[in-house]
Amino acid sequence: MGFHTPEFFILLVLSFAAFSLTRSKRLWVLAVFDALFYLYAGVLDFSLLAAASVVSYLAGLGMATRWRKVWCVLGVGLNLLNLAFFKYYYFVLGNISKVAAVPERFWTLRVVLPIGISFYTFQLVSYIVDVYKDRIEPARSFLEFWVYISFFGQVIAGPIMRADVFLPQVKRTESYQFDLDRTKKGLLLLLVGLAKKVVIADTLAPFVDAFFSRGAGMSSVDVWVAAYLFGFQIYYDFSAYCDMALGVGKLFGFELTRNFNTPYVSQNPQEFWRRWHITLSTWVRDYLYIPMGGSRKGYVRGLVAVIAAMCISGLWHGASWTFLLWGLYHGILSAAHRVWKTVTAGKIRPSGLVRALNVFGYLQLTMVGWVFFRVTDVKALGPILGKMLSFSDLSVGPHFAEYVAVILVLYALHWVEHLALENRGQLLRWWQERIPSPVKGLVYAAVILGILLFTRPKENAFIYFQF
């Protein structure tokens, strides 16, 4: 059930009405609607989420006993095995079959990736580890724990919420007080996210598909255009979902963690990962990079750890060698940036020009990375990247100027969004206090009309739903 479907908005209206009208059973209302939302994906999907939740809840309680390490290993292990089986079954079989015969019965087993499994698995693993490390107290109420892990505003594609941030909010659910200002902000985020998805991301999708369907038949210029279009498609698609998740959270009194902060204004890898998929980046840092030793085990060990962590992050996105290579690419960029900082420490004076050159340069490196991410066939990756980096074929298509204009407009919009987020408090006050209500109504009506005009008969699922 995508956030941009009529079914979702029906469920949202019904759940918000029941939640608002109920005084003492609001947690039960959320628990039921969370279950209904996930059941829409399928009984098996729901059963796996429920089972993983029960195992993790029991593991949290079990760590209050002398068997705490056993419970931790059991909880983390079962969650990771669940993810590994459903996400990497065919990937592992395919690679084994290249060196040894695989019995036919293994191929006939139908393994379907449950929706949202990558996100809720990481959320459950972080909960178990945090309980084991005594960072948080284990949840005593399974009802509260279920709402924490299954909240329909973020269960499918994040943000990956930490228990120390989200569980206390869930516990305060029964004391919820309707707040008109918070509700308005929630609805605004829903509207902004819906516009990003339907008007921008879904409009770009067929052009991106058309470019990449040509594979190595693209010219060098075509590959760069395709990379830019996909870079903006995936940003506006995923940030749209996350904006809507924040909006849904606000309606029910929850403050979810912001997952995006205009990443294409970044000067380097370190800044990029503070702005792109923030909750995954911090998860990788806290539960992979630091446990590997981080920078505590020496300079070289830190470089190896960051590359390894990014490789695992790449595989988290999908069971494909191209995702692993995407993670490796960003790991190498991150390691190289650390070396560069060490070599140039204090030798380059920061200035507006330096920042602009850094932003421009790292944007190009980011777009090269998106080719790894978007190309599905690892054999086609080399020729496509070869065309992109060698500039061996500079022929342009008949609509090249239009594509360049679209890319420039999209990047300008990205900077507008960046400035709006940097000054959101002032902008909201200006909008609420200075703009007359009739003008606000006309703007909202125009946005809604635009969304309706751009809505397609065939629904385009959010890209990150596949992960």
Describe this structure in words.
The structure is a single chain. With 467 residues, the protein is mostly helical. The protein folds into 3 domains: 6-176, no CATH class; 179-260 and 392-467, no CATH class; 266-389, no CATH class. The protein is built from 19 helices and no strands. The longest helix has 33 residues, at 180-212. The protein is globular. The model has no long low-confidence stretch (mean pLDDT 89).
List the defining traits of the structure above.
467 residues; single chain; 19 helices; globular; mainly alpha
Précis, in short:
This protein is mainly α and 467 residues long. The protein has 19 helices and no strands.
Please write out the topology.
Layout: H1 6-21, H2 26-39, H3 43-62, H4 68-96, H5 104-108, H6 117-132, H7 142-150, H8 163-171, H9 180-212, H10 220-251, H11 269-275, H12 278-289, H13 299-317, H14 321-344, H15 352-374, H16 378-390, H17 400-422, H18 424-434, H19 437-454
Helix pairs in contact: 1-2, 2-7, 3-4, 3-6, 3-7, 4-6, 7-8, 9-10, 9-19, 10-15, 10-16, 10-17, 12-13, 13-14, 14-15
Count of beta strands: 0
Total number of helical segments? 19
**Regions with little confidence, pLDDT below 50 for 5+ residues:** none
Query: What proportion of the residues is helical, as a percent range?
Result: over 70%
What is the H-and-E element order? HHHHHHHHHHHHHHHHHHH
| Average pLDDT metric | 89
Shape: globular
How many structural domains does the protein architecture include? 3
Major sheet: none
Give the class from helix and strand content and strand pairing: mainly alpha
Quote the beta fraction: under 5%
Radius of gyration, in angstroms, nearest whole number = 23 Å
Q: Kindly report how far apart the N and C termini lie.
A: 15 Å
